[in-house]
Amino acid sequence: MKVNAQYVNFNAVGTLSDFVQARMDKLEVFYDKVISADVYLKLANTSEKENKIAEIKVNIPKDSIVVKKQCKSFEEAVDEACNSLERQLVKKKEKMKM
After folding, report:
1. Cα(6)–Cα(74) distance, integer angstroms
2. Which of 3, 11, 86, 97 is 20 to 30 A distant from 55 in Cα terms?
3. Which residues are CB-neighbours of 75 under 8 A, at least 6 positions away?
4. 3-state secondary structure of 29
5. Distance between CA atoms of 92 and 21, rounded to whole angstroms?
6. Element (H, E) at 23
């Protein structure tokens, strides 16, 4: 799967990019027709501890799914967003079987 990652208001280290790619590759286990994914990691301008935002858009045939999560770390935000995407992709796959 092709993953386009964009980092807003900060510079990403290589380990974060590798983590995002590895986590997104796991989505193909749940739904094998994923075309591509756009990942936006943003640093919010707030004084709160939960200021890391992960927004993921997954493109599938004839549709797309968007999930946005805000957490204390980018890894946690990406992980929660992917968990949500996994549930939605399983639902989509079950609907197609009917």
Report:
1. 13
2. 97
3. 16, 19
4. helix
5. 22
6. helix 14-25
Structure tokens at 64: 């797309």
Strand partners, 37: 3, 58
5-57 pLDDT per residue, tens: 999 888 888 899 999 999 999 998 988 889 999 999 999 888 788 899 999 99
83's CB contacts (< 8 A; 6+ apart) are none
- Asked whether the beta carbons of 39 and 77 are under 8 A apart, the reply is no
Measured CA to CA in angstroms, residue 71 lies from 7, 20, 27, 31, 61 at distances of: 16, 15, 20, 26, 30
How large is the angle between the packed helices 14-25 and 74-97, nearest 10 degrees? 20
Longest CA pairwise span in the chain (Å): 48
- For 48, residues 6+ apart whose C-beta sits below 8 A from its C-beta are none
